[in-house]
């Protein structure tokens, strides 16, 4: 019978990360400290999200960001929360956020004056349009190692240090503030899903070694933009809705928070798409803090992620806020799309 203490002997995220560190004999513990800061920032953000209606944190902040978007109060709160916590870890040399135009140079270590050897890019609050309706939102992050931390002196050198292809990522993950709070992470050895136990305030391992089904039955795209799609996207979505005789059509699910749409796609399979279109020639989603970390998780889970022309993880960023078209999900579904896209290449 349940004792009520089950959570206490579970694998927490902290234990999981420390275990990973112990397996690498040359690990300094810096990534562990940075991930602890990210974990705490997710918990703080989740607390703000859960209390937002009561604490009057819904609505606009009255400011805009470099993306041309109106910022919500929670966009700013989450951004400040992540920046403060990551800075405090003193293990990070560079931060890039959706909400800040320039790459940020972190302060040097208060102990030995060195610059942190990691760089992090984050979308502090993903799914802003869903905040006020209490629909799932999240946070996305990607972490890279900096080749030469001493070279970082200003925003330009900071941006250069993090402009690495997704394949060089050392960790990526997201938190989803949904009906429960999940933190899904990969350090390059598979994908692990944790659930926040509210009574403990700890992320507990609930989904070890997540694998995406090789084929799904769901497509996820903002179909309201269909009139502006290119031929490959139009034909592909048409093929899911009107399949050949004997095959069933796919279901449509679209939340409008990348975190929630990708989370469902990881578990149920299928495709998540944000294509380029006539109005947005590079699509909407940003490479460093949306497309690449999710592509990393997808590939680690056995799925695929492409722009239709190249694998997302192969792209070398030219701008920290660069946008890319996104097609990701089950390997067989994405292979179908790629076959179709190559017809129009
Ligand atoms: P953000 O809230 O961080 O700006 O991201 C919004 C993104 C992403 O979460 C989602 O997939 C997409 O915008 C939805 O866009 P549409 O409203 O155009 O469908
Ligand atoms: Mn935004
Ligand atoms: Mn986002
Ligand atoms: Mn955002």
Would you write up a description of this structure?
This protein has 345 residues and is an alpha+beta fold. The chain is built from 8 helices and 15 strands. The chain has helices spanning 13-23, 30-51, 73-89, 155-162, 231-241, 258-268, 287-300, 331-344, and strands spanning 60-64, 70-72, 92-97, 104-105, 118-126, 137-145, 171-177, 181-186, 192-197, 202-207, 218-220, 251-252, 271-274, 304-306, 326-329. Helix 1 packs antiparallel against helix 2 (30-51) and helix 2 runs antiparallel to helix 3 (73-89). The longest helix is centred in the first third of the chain and has 22 residues, at 30-51. The protein is globular and about 65 Å long. The N and C termini lie far apart (60 Å). The model has no long low-confidence stretch (mean pLDDT 95). Bound molecules: 2,5-anhydro-1,6-di-O-phosphono-D-glucitol and manganese (II) ion (MN) (3 copies). Residues 67, 69, 98, 128 line the site of one manganese (II) ion.
Order of helical and strand elements = HHEEHEEEEHEEEEEHEHEHEEH
Mean pLDDT: 95
Which shape, going by the Cα principal axes? globular
* Largest sheet: spatial strand order: 4-3-5-6-7-8-9-10
Distance between the termini: 60 Å
The whole-angstrom Rg is 20 Å
Give me the count of strands.
Answer: 15
Task: Note poorly predicted spans.
Answer: none
* Strand composition percent: 15-25%
> What small molecules accompany the polymer chains?
2,5-anhydro-1,6-di-O-phosphono-D-glucitol, manganese (II) ion
Secondary-structure-derived class = alpha+beta
Helix content range of the residues, please?
25-40%
Tally of helical segments:
8
Largest sheet: 8 strands, mixed
């Amino acid at each position: 019978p349940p004792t009520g203490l089950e959570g206490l002997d579970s694998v927490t995220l902290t234990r999981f990360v420390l275990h990973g560190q112990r397996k690498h004999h040359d690990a300094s513990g810096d990534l562990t400290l940075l991930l602890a800061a990210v974990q705490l920032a997710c918990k703080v953000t989740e607390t703000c999200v859960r209390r937002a209606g009561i604490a009057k944190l819904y609505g606009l902040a009255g400011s805009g960001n470099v993306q041309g978007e109106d910022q919500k109060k929670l966009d700013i709160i989450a951004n400040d929360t992540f920046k403060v916590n990551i800075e405090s870890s003193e293990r990070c040399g560079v931060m890039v956020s959706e909400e800040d135009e320039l790459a940020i140079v972190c302060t040097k270590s208060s102990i030995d004056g060195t610059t942190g050897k990691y760089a992090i890019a984050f979308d502090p609050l993903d799914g802003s349009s869903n905040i006020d309706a209490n629909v799932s939102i999240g946070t996305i992050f990607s972490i890279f190692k900096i080749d030469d931390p001493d070279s970082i002196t200003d925003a330009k050198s900071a941006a250069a240090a993090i402009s690495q292809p997704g394949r060089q990522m050392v960790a990526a993950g997201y938190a989803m503030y949904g009906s429960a709070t999940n933190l899904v992470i990969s350090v390059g050895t598979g994908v692990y899903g944790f659930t926040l136990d509210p009574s403990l305030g700890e992320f507990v391992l609930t989904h070890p070694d997540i694998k995406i089904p090789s084929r799904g039955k769901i497509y996820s795209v903002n179909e309201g933009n269909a009139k502006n799609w290119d031929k490959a996207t139009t034909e592909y979505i048409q093929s899911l809705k009107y399949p050949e005789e004997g095959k069933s059509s796919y279901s449509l699910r679209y939340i409008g928070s990348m975190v929630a749409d990708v989370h469902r796609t990881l578990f149920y399979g299928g495709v998540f798409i944000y294509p380029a279109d006539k109005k947005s020639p590079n699509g909407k989603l940003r490479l460093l803090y949306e497309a690449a970390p999710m592509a990393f998780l997808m590939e680690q889970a056995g799925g695929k992620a492409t722009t239709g022309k190249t694998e997302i993880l192969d792209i070398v960023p030219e701008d920290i806020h660069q946008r890319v078209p996104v097609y990701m999900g089950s390997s067989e579904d994405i292979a179908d799309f790629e076959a179709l896209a190559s017809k129009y290449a």
